[in-house]
Amino acid sequence: MDEAQESLEEKSDDTGARLGMWLFILSELLLFGGMFILYAAYRYKNSADFHLASMELEVGLGTLNTLLLLTSSFCVAVSVAAIQRGERRLSILLLGVTVLLGLLFLVNKGVEWGAKIEHGLYPNSSVLLGRPKGEGLFFGLYYVMTGLHGLHVLVGVAVLAVMAWFILREKITRTRFVPLENAGLYWHLVDIIWLFLFPLFYLIR
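User: That's the sequence. What structure does it adopt?
Assistant: Structure tokens below.
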């Protein structure tokens, strides 16, 4: 009887954890959705300036970051499937690859930011103040939106590293994998957001 009650409580906790994660994801989508709408409104009013400013971004770097995140999402999905089959080592290995790819994304983004800042392309710089207002708006949105996304990537990397540790300590197993599943959902969210940011800033010109 006690075992049955414990099983029911565990299933209830899992359901609550999943529901909480989906509510969190919804709130994040609303946050970035608002930013996307703001971007669209400013672009509509300053289409020529946004076009010129977007030419300053390197599509190659943006494409590389896209490939890094897409690959990492695949790895974390397979990691969740692996732990469900009881393959702990494979799950940990794939999480390690995901963390590495996430860090490479951040390094790549840091290099890109550094190059733009070195050329004076940042809000209120003397270079942008001498250009049309729309270009300043573009780079303001670029730094805010990609910076907020980068913060989410950093958090995701930390969470996945903790998940790997939990698997190693057998706190996450083939029967108790919801925390890893939720962490994977968060990482997919990070990936989806970038799939909107990439065309907005790098491809639509």
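The first helix runs from residue 2 to 45.
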